[in-house]
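Researcher: Please translate sequence to structure tokens.
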Amino acid sequence: MNHKLDFIWLTQALKKEHPVILWLDDERDPNAIYPGIIGDDSIQNKPTWVEYIVGKWNPGNWEVVWVKNYKQFTNYLELSEMPDVVCFDHDLGEQMSGKDCANYMIDILVERDILGPVVRSQSANPSGVANIMGLFDNWHEHYVKEHSLNSINLS
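Model: Translation complete:
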């Protein structure tokens, strides 16, 4: 991923009153406690799934929208402003995968001529993560070559 572009996008998101994280996952509740931290057993010190994947940027300020399948994901993108962060699961328990959702989102980015959000993946499928992140790496590389950072539309 292009970390300079992530920084630009997050800087813009943090200026908003309520930045949005779009969480695509058929099983993992973004607000449930992340189970993978070993050590302190007290729940208060453990992050939620979304905090573990995205980070703890004043989490009370962020709106987390949880969608569980391709149809909910595409409906959200069609009816809403582009979220600030999108977290992808790959295996959605249906024919359409997180990679299909990523392809759809890239089509929206092209159509709207925008850079797009910060992208993360919480999938347990390593090749699925590589496929999704590879799509966005290619998108950013292509987009940045055609647009100067000063003229990128972030909205």
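Researcher: Any highlights?
Model: Residues 3-151 form a domain with the Rossmann fold fold (CATH 3.40.50).
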